[in-house]
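Quick start: what a row looks like.
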Amino acid sequence: MFSNLANRTAYSSELIILAVCVFWWFVAKDLPDFVLPTPIDVLLSTIQIVTDQNTVSHIFISMTRVLVAVLIAAFISILLSVLTRMNILFQTIIENNILVVLNSFPSVGWAILGVIWFSISNGTVIFIEIMIITPFCLINCLQGFRQMDPELLEMGKSFSRNALRNFFKLQIALAVPFIIAGVRMSYGIAWKIAIVAELFGASSGLGWLLQQAQNQSDAQTVLAICILIVILFSIIDGLLLRPFAKRYSINTMEN
């Protein structure tokens, strides 16, 4: 029953995508390419970007920046979440001050400051991405460590008094579903931020390619890059993050 429902849902989503493409073609066929190219033209541009040696390097550069930023943001979020459990002072500073500042600080502000502090470089882009996505990951990590069952933690202490062993074997395991949720959210936002960050502080990457396309009024390349970013996000999320989250959510329910 559930498999049939899943299949029907998948077919419905594919039909919706097909309908959107048909409508897109119908609207674009009478418009100039620089205003709205057809889906076929955008598909050909996307294929050209992923097969051209000069543009493939920009794809890998952007992907590397995003992955590094997400990993560092996740590490910072876990570290700050652990500190909130150690001392009420840390909890107050992190939740009532640091998180508030990170959540409310304008993204453009981080972009401008990154360029001023580090000039145009890979470090600038990664810094901008980290500062913007960290609060999203931190909120989930804080919630994960807060939701831990005190009885399970006490039971862990009865089996071992080693604090590091309890932390990695028990606390991290209990918080993993929340951490993964934060990483998935941060990964999606990081791609949006990466383009803005590369526009401000990089001379390479997909954001830089977008800027070149904008200067040439090349709507076809702009749409191709945007679709390529959606594909890159879907690959990592579908093949790695989503199965990982599903696996740990199932394990949590069984336990």
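That is the whole record. Residues 163-201 form the longest helix (39 residues). The CA atoms of residues 4 and 10 lie 10 Å apart.
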